[in-house]
Here is the input.
Amino acid sequence: MAAFELLERDGFARLGKLSTPHGVLETPALLPVIHPDPERQAWRPSEIARRLGVRGVISSAYITWRTPPLRAVAESSGIHGLLGFDGVVMTDSGAFQEHAYGSVEVDPEEILAFQDRIGSDIATVLDRFTEPDTPSAEAEEALRTTHERAVRARAARRGLLAVPVQGGLDPLLRARAAREASGLGDVLAVGGVVPLLEQYRFVELARALTAARPHLAPEAAVHLFGAGHPMVFAFAALLGVDLFDSSAYHKFARRGKLLFPEGTVDVDTIREPFCGCALCEEHPLSEVAGWSLAERVSHLSLHNLAVSVREVARVRQAIRDGTLWELVERRAVAHPALRAGLRAATERPELFATTEPESRRAFREIGPESPRRPSVDRFSRRVAAFLAGRPVPRSLPRLPLRPEYLGRIPTSDRSGAPILWVSPTFLGAVPLELTELYPVGPYLGLEEFEQPRASVSPSLLRELLAALPDLGAELNRDWSAAWTERQIVSLLEWQFGRPSAEVLAPLLRGERSRRTGRLRLLTSDGRPAFVLGDDAIPRPTFHGATRLKEAVGPGRLRVHVAEEAAEFARAGRSVFSKFVLAADPALVPGSSAMVVDDSDELLGVGRLLLAPHEMGRLRRGVAVRITSHARAPEPEPEEPAEGPESLYPERE
Here is the structure.
């Protein structure tokens, strides 16, 4: 049952839609845990839906089943009738109770059939809960049992099915569980992690998620059982979690605790009105502390849930903006254990390689974890490959790539030998012609304010270069045209490889922005062929793609679509995932690619939303957004957002 649609992404994190019989969940989404007994609910689901906009909840099918009065209502009016809620209801199956008490009175087939009868939107397999420290042999046996139950459940269940992903702390078992669950579930629920969350063992949580995440089916939503504290939502979303459930909002309230993304606060210690939410505008927390126990628990539960709902909304916005890594790093400051978890998540940056976006709008340094982002690792590796086999580099101060500077820097010495100039960046020395690329071009970090870039005038630059003995009269030439040619060749090589650059470069002429001097457009035959945005990546127009297609050869940089989608792509319409036949595996989300039909005819150029391995598997939604096609007008180069004297985004 194809139910998940990906709308936007930031690496593993996904903004999506999960379609169910009772509506659509916009993911990442929070599912508050609701006790099936109305007498034990902190708030009615209908009330939290009205006040907080909650569209889905999770409740216990097992507790409902074993409690005759609740069972009678659920079987006559459905789980939605029992809860008095017309939104999405996911039900769990009693696995935690089985683990905690040694057994449950119901077998896996009966509890699944019961979830069917009461109309659960997302039913859950009765899995074998595995403690994090369970020996691998026992965890493997439990995993075998869970898989057998899941196979039977899939055969019996026509609606949405959540299949747990267990495996303890064994990465091989986690990966195996992810693969097995992926063939069966519409929702893949990573379980056995509540003890890790409760004990702040975020390093092991990160390793469990990174072991499982690459093997989880992209067409399924990913749920993390028990991730109810708002301090972990951004962290879990970064590792690909789409759904959270929270009983913490009520459990902590019963202990007089308030939940915030920065941590937990005891209400009895509050003397200042530091929280400015609507609830605290009406009743300051210092006032709530003096209420009766029942009133206090009720209010704190709603407050905790409101904070949690807002944090998930903040995570969704960060995914839209491409700033989730920054948000996670800010949240990690809340606790050293969370910082350690973030470091553990980046131990293997290659795990992010297939879904890490080609670029983002900016790179803001938040803390010491910022240089560990996968985009930094990828860029550093590519710079090392670019420098291999080239002349020993010479250093220059950091300079804007404007003609008044470039015109004074020779690209070769008096003997005609090429000179490779490098410039300092937060990643070390980078070839001067590549310093506008993401992440070093739009970088904003601590060093910009601790050690502001020295002002180097064109005349001072000339004096610095004149001290080099092998340049001599070369300083009297205007090297602007040579630098434009070098930058074109280097950026084409960076993006498409050296052989393709050698074919393309002679066909192209560069145009720089009149305002900033940055290279903005490459033309061929007087027509725009490649446009360079703020990430400095040359992106082809349809005209440029006709040249690129010949230069790169068969198969490369292509997305092949079925014939029924070809005419839509020709007209500039987005390419839907279900119509993709194949894609170059070297592409990543955000890459520009040539969209072709099965005979390799060029239909258009587009930007990837999905990674190649995801295309075709998601049966809903867009895979490639067309940016240029045969019927489209030629694009104009965009001016950068920053002012003429700055290489950086506007400072906050």
Summary: DSSP finds 24 helices and 28 strands in the chain. The chain has three domains: 4-347, 363-476, 498-629. The radius of gyration is 28 Å.
